Amino acid sequence: MFIDGDGSRLNRVDHNLFEGKRELGNCITIEGSEEPELQVSQHDRIDHNHFRNIGPRHEENGLETIRLGWSRMFASSGFTTVEENLFEHCDGDAEVISVKCSDNRLRRNTFIDCQGSLVLRHGNRNTVEECFFLCNNGKRGVGGVRVIGEGHKIINNYFGGLTGTGFYWPLVLMNGDTEPGTYTASYHQVRQALIAHNTFVNCIGNTLDIGKINGTGQLPVKDSVIANNIVVGYTPVGSEDVLVMFRSEPENLVWQGNIMYHASAELGMTAPESAVRWVDPKLVRSADGVWRLAEASPAIDAAEGSYPDVARDLDGEVRDERPDTGADEYLPASNGGRHPLTPADVGVDAPEGDDGKRVGHRSDLREARRLRVRLAQRGQSGLVDAGHPVPDELVVLVHPELARFAQPLALLDRPVLSRIASRPKLRQPRRIGQRPPILGGRRRRQHQGRQNHDRPALTCHE
Ligand SMILES: [Ca+2]
Ligand SMILES: [Ca+2]
Q1: How far is the CA of 154 from the centre of ligand 2 (A)?
Q2: Which ligand is nearest to the CA of 330?
Q3: What's the whole-number average pLDDT of the chain?
Q4: Most C-beta atoms within 10 A of its C-beta, which of 109, 257, 280, 320?
Q5: Integer angstrom CA distances of residue 189 from 118, 152, 168, 217, 221
């Protein structure tokens, strides 16, 4: 699915199943306009989708589940939200999600056994929060989050049992080749990153990998904060032996209020107790497999400093006046937190989201058909949302491979015009920036070039 075009905004892609994609091409790509200036599509929402069995890893880059923007759009603000999606065995690319523009929010997504990472590859000020990154069955190469650029926030996430190494350690902060602000196909310097209130449990060693170099890498991680995280391993799960690995020396990296403990690994740095306390946080595994705080945990009320971005916890619950270390706030009166998403929570048959905006009743279908006819009369054939005006500039191009998912598009709660790529004779709506969904010739080379020039190829286990 390709979301694109001049003035593209307010598109929603929700409650779909993306499954079994093996050939090159992302499941969802969001781009935008190139003239008069590069502008990524804005205020889009990708939610409650189920992505599964994407892959195996392709020899070329470009089989991501989602790519937001592309490298030359890095400075453009997307304000897009990717939330409440389930990713299972999405192995097609080193980047399960590739973010290449600015000011997006990725939250409450669950990643299970995905051989790759969520990568903030280009762009600034993106937030990754309240996500579960899980490896359930010891599958190799299952990664977490890799950070490049300025002002990113990684908060309230849970990383459980991850097995990725090299570029796929649970959290990787890359060294840069280029200062933020100018285009590069390589790596922008990490600055002003906030890594706060995350919980890492039973991952293979080197949970935090700082200053990894891929390229010249002369610009170190700078002016960033790693605060109030829990890193704990109760079982020896790998051969690596430190929790924090410095590949190069950071510049003004502040450590505060972290709790780390491992049965068989060492910390890997010297730090005062106020920065990292080596103590067992005494987490207890709950029924959903997530390790959470319990009554006796020394992490309760132990957070230091003030982080207004973390007013809630992984469960979405408001933290009390003395926040706990890690992603979970221990609230004895709570009647249950958020759990890792399951197939029942997402996809075509899933119930409404938290916002109660799910549609899909028969009356909506009837309305959608009516609008479809009306649109055809206007020369704008396609499926549209029920009960909304249809602005010309909002477009979703549906790749033929995904055409069978076109019907759920009729159920979007945002005004979206959908065009099936296999019907090329449709008259084109005004003001639509076109991009053939089947890429051929020059365009295909150009498209692949975007993918390939953006990063060096990575192999899964390096
Ligand atoms: Ca507390
Ligand atoms: Ca909680």
Answers
A1: 18
A2: 2
A3: 81
A4: 109
A5: 18, 12, 19, 8, 7
| Ligand located closest to 332 CA | 2
Going from the Cα of 139 to the center of ligand 1, the distance in angstroms, rounded, reads: 35
Gyration radius of the chain over CA positions: 22
- Please state, in angstroms and rounded to a whole number, the distance separating the CA atoms of residues 292 and 91: 28
Distance (Å, rounded) from C-alpha 26 to C-alpha 60? 12
CA angle (227 as vertex; 223, 231 as ends), nearest 5: 125
CA of 280 to the centre of ligand 1 (A): 17
Q: Taking the domains of the chain in order of start, what are their residue ranges? A: 2-349, 363-421
Of 100, 75, 85, 3, give the one whose Cα is nearest residue 46.
85
Which CATH class name applies to 2-349? mainly beta
- How many CB atoms lie under 10 A from the CB of residue 326? 33
Closest ligand, as measured to the CA of 319: 1
- To 5 degrees, how large is the angle CA 201–CA 221–CA 170? 20
Residues 6+ apart with CB under 8 A from 141: 115, 116, 163, 164, 165, 168, 460, 461
pTM across the whole model: 0.80
Return all residues near 31 (Cβ < 8 A) that are at least 6 apart. 2, 3, 4, 40, 41, 69, 70, 73, 435
319 Cα to the center of ligand 1, angstroms: 6
Residues 297, 61: Cα–Cα separation, whole Å: 43
d(CA 106, CA 97): 10
Q: How many CB atoms lie within 10 A of CB 343?
A: 13
Contact 454, 100 (CB under 8 A): yes
pLDDT, tens digit, 9 for 90 and up, residues 35-54 = 888 999 999 999 999 999 99
Ligand 1 center to 187 CA (angstroms): 38
pLDDT (mean) for 396-423: 37
**Distance set, CA 413 to CA 3, 27, 257, 376 (Å):** 16, 21, 43, 20
What residues have a C-beta under 5 A from ligand 2, the ion? 313, 315, 328-329, 337
Strands 81-83 and 105-107: parallel
Give the Cα separation of 105 and 128 in Å (integer): 6
Q: What is the Å distance from ligand 1's center to 299 Cα?
A: 9
Say how many Å lie between the CA of residue 326 and the centre of ligand 1.
Answer: 11
pLDDT at residue 78, as a whole number: 96
Taking alpha carbons only, the member of 350, 328, 336, 317 closest to residue 86 is: 350
Residue 32 confidence class, pLDDT cut points 50, 70, 90: very high
